[in-house]
Amino acid sequence: MSETLKDRLKAKALAEGFASFGVCRPDAVPQLPDRLATFVEEGRHGQMGWMEERMTWRSDPAALWPEARSVVMLAEPYTPEHDPLEVLKQRDRAAVSVYAQNRDYHDIVKKRLKRVGRWLVEDAGCEIKVFVDTAPVMEKPLAAAAGLGWQGKHTNLLSRELGNWFFIGAIFTTAELEPDQAGVENCGSCTACLDICPTDAFPAPYQLDARRCISYLTIEHKGPVPEDLRAKMGNRIYGCDDCLAACPWNKFAVEATEIRYAAREDLVAPSLRDLAGLDDGAFRAMFSGSPIKRIGRDRFVRNVLYAVGNSGDATLKDVAVGLIDDPAPEVADAARWAVARL
Known about the structure:
Layout: H1 5-15, E1 20-24, H2 32-41, H3 49-53, H4 55-59, H5 61-64, E2 70-77, E3 95-96, H6 105-124, E4 128-131, H7 139-145, E5 150-151, E6 157-158, E7 166-173, H8 192-196, H9 214-219, H10 227-230, E8 236-238, H11 242-245, H12 265-268, H13 272-276, H14 280-286, H15 296-310, H16 317-321, H17 329-341
Parallel strand pairs: 3-8
Antiparallel strand pairs: 1-2, 2-7, 4-7, 5-6
Helix pairs in contact: 1-6, 15-17
């Protein structure tokens, strides 16, 4: 049997370093508009106003680019070499989400996508658009429709071959490619991801209330975090990996092949004292090229101070006292809260 365009494209994608490849039609998830509308109507998107503002595009990939005929979904592993839950026991240290412990994945994945996309343009004479988590594209449902896996009870994408430690990229194209079979849900009766969530952010299996999710609270939420959630954040200062780390399917996770995802030694379990002392310049220098940089020094130090308040370590009290008069209101508020806790 002669090799198809899709066969050649898959070979190119795997050669570039992607671990999984699948294709779906732009209209492969007809239930998207209703699901997204319900999520927004219930306010579960919190302060992420862009979800509501661009809902038409986000809920209908065909509306984003009407000329697209196929969506190529690709997965790239960032599997950690260490147990990301271990640092939660070290109360004077900070827990940083695995994906943010080195270079910004947006840049790495997008460049890889563009190389695959350019090859497709040259080979098929088609048009393409590439997306990595920054455009109004519902990557996880599309990836499930393309057969890369299924959305687990924690709403993240799961794969028999990759576990759940992987990034997703999309190539929309005018080329006609044969779609793959959609992924089949394989969570069974397991509730490990739901049970481990520190803030009860899952109202039900397969549903997330972002307003209670520590990843949302530490990254997207502006201003002070609601007081009833601060103690539950523990020492997590940027993102949260609990539901991902708890998944039994990770026993099949493959190693990350991209060295730039390997954890920086200074971000595996950094000192809360050191991080709290960062001014804007030092913050920018430390996190140059990191996804952490985008939340800015003030939100970052706010998160660090919640961790200081949760540490139970009286020797860190001076750290919080020193920031009570910080010019940033959210930092000063967090400092006062931490002092009261200690």
